[in-house]
Amino acid sequence: MTSIHFHYAVDGGCSFHRALQPVRFCHDDLIEQGIQLSVGQSLRDDVDWLVFHSLPGNSATLHEVLRLKRKGVKLCWSLDDDLAAIPDWNPAKIGEDGMVVFDIMALAADAVIVSVPELGRVLWERHDYCEPVFICPNLLDLSTFPESPFDGASFADTTVQWPIRVVWAGSQTHKGDIAAIEDALIRLVDKHGPKTVSVVFAGSLPPPDLMRKHLHLGVMTCPQVPFNQYRRFANTLDPQIWLAPLADVPFNLSKSHLRVMEGWALGGCVVASAIGEYNRIRDGFDGFLCSTSDQWFATLDRLVMDHQSRIQVAADGRRRAVVECDWRRIENRKPWIDALKALSGM
Q: I need a labelling partner for 303 at 20 to 30 A (CA). Which of 27, 58, 186, 233 fits?
């Protein structure tokens, strides 16, 4: 029996998607093949493999990881972001000490699991990393999302609700991302007014100029909630249009399209930046891609009034989420199963 323990430090988004969910959904697939999965905040020394997500938060944790290595526990490093390229406007940016820890983890790791191919390439090229890199995608448990409003329904059956809800959800770590669409949103609310369009920022404040001009006049904000409450909170947002902007910076080239998947699953018409993994969207079919402020405004302006197009694209996005993004489909979690089998054989 090979034992693989997933460690997570805090009850947050990355830990949920990269530690808790893989163990929950892959455990039964692997136990019959002699692979035992476990997950927790402890650093266990009675396992064959430790899957450690991101960076140790303090020197004591780093020393403990290295102690386990010396004892014979193999280390698989799990990454969901290019930590060396976090932009200055992101409060999660790590300093010089953090990069030293990054280099130590890269040297210590016996294997790496990443969420997207570009992040694996960055490790190979930028950091001269040479251990096995497994691409294991972020996925969703669609049983925790609202039922699809589109199942068995036609456009004629769908009632348009006013104002049209345009939703962005996330934390202040995305300050530079949402700044890229501030001008387009100002123009949108200026043109249509609060009776026609409502822009909702869930989890962070709107950009300054948008807030000064339109707060409570077409623009709303909801405070951030603890992660263990986020899924229930997000399910109440009822987006008709779901915003997924990304700043054109190297960091975002290595991000997964988790935000796009969430918009699909919530039944919103996804409008996203044409950057990195967000290009998985089939433009005009299950979402829309934008590269400039003018494109963002033109797309949102049309979707506010073009109900048939907005609803059809949202429905196609929801169907795509069911097929490609749900943990419960064995073909979706197969990359995780294959990677953990490979670890067992190393």
A: 233
C-beta separation of 2 from 35 below 8 A: yes
Do 297 and 157 belong to one domain? Answer: yes
pLDDT at 155 (0 to 100): 53
Q: What is the pLDDT of residue 126?
A: 67
Beta carbons within 8 Å of 84's beta carbon, 6+ residues apart = 99, 102, 122, 126, 127
Better pLDDT: 123 or 159: 123
What is the C-alpha to C-alpha distance for residues 316 and 47, in angstroms, rounded to an integer? 43
For residue 8, what pLDDT is reported? 86
Looking at the structure, tell me whether residues 259 and 333 fall in a common domain: no
Number of domains in the chain: 2
CB-CB contact of 202 with 228 (8 Å)? no
pTM score, whole prediction: 0.95
Note whether 222 and 84 are same-domain residues: no
**How do 197-202 and 2-7 pair as beta strands?**
unpaired
On whether the CB atoms of residues 141 and 21 are closer than 8 A, the answer is yes
Which of 268, 278, 272, 273 has the alpha carbon at shortest distance from 317? 268
Domain that holds residue 174: 142-324
We report the CATH number of the domain holding residue 316 as: 3.40.50.2000
Q: How many residues does the chain have?
A: 346
Instruction: Give me 102's structure tokens.
Output: 């990054």
C-alpha count within 13 angstroms, C-beta hemisphere, residue 157: 7
